[in-house]
Amino acid sequence: MTERTEITLEELADLPEGTRLLIDTRDEISMSYGTIPGAKHIPDLLEQAERGTLPKDRSLILFCMHGTQSLALAENLQDMGYQAFSLKNGYGAWLRKNLTPVDRSAEIENAIRRVRRFHEKLMTPFTRAVREYQLLQPGDRVAVCISGGKDSMLMAKLFQELQRHRKFPFELKFLVMDPGYNELNRLMIETNAAALGIPITIFETNIFDIVDGIPNSPCYLCARMRRGHLYRQAKELGCNKIALGHHYDDVIETILMGMLWSGQFQTMMPKVHSQNFEGMELIRPMSLIREDDIKAWRDYHGLHFIQCACHFTDTCSSCRDDGAPVSKRMETKMLIRKLHETNLDVEANLYNTARCVNLDKILGYKQGGEEHSFLDNY
Q: Do 167 and 258 belong to one domain?
């Protein structure tokens, strides 16, 4: 085996393009959130290596999020006779080096206004949702909740655009809750906010530390705690609404997840009254925007955002060493993608099921906490 199994970013930069092959070893979903330019995804890497189909005349530079899983893979490939190395500290190291808080807001705003795809696929469905679901009223003060991902960051920009061309007055507060982010994720959020021209207000909590001690299904409790903290902080800022960045694909995934994993039919509503904070409302103005269009906007500008920042998933499923499976949402996302291969309308059909419920053709339903049966009016 080669004495060295790791390579630094500086050493990588010194390697001529034709002498190396950059390989992202994370799962495909994690890679879709962002990767090093020029990197390839080879899902059956070790199988291809055993078949001898990987190039032996080039250095194979492997990386995952933090350089954990890629290091073991590089050692395996070296044992097979390949010139394989793991990028030290992984994709995270590349992000740290390439994060620059340069104000790019004018460029990004101009693209939303001038680039036809972005105006039609982002701004138009955003304003349509606001209008169709009556999400804003004159005098509203909205806490735009930013998690640090692509969805909430784009939502903030679309809100800024809407406010510039508003037909009635409303106020915006850009709110970031730090539930215990690691240093890299916190840095990414602050850098991206500066680049996009979003004046964020950050407040800190210890939610991640609390849910770390929960052995089974911590995500539900984490989500509820985060929601409560956001409502409370928004109310202190004088807001009457919080806005979350859930998009069209989140909506249809929720429909299918409820049916497959919970045995119930429900979806993410465009707006919901808070049950615990009187006078507060949650709105989802991204409900009609497709995730692929958000990714296209991100990639067009070469932006990099955090994926999921909790202690359970801030690496990627391939970096985990506890054998944990992907989340039910991720599993559902992959299922819909598979169904799309043979049915191009599957996403639209799922969405429409929540708009066209035929009460004459269901066994029962709940309304206001009260159960109803088809026998009631049989």
A: yes
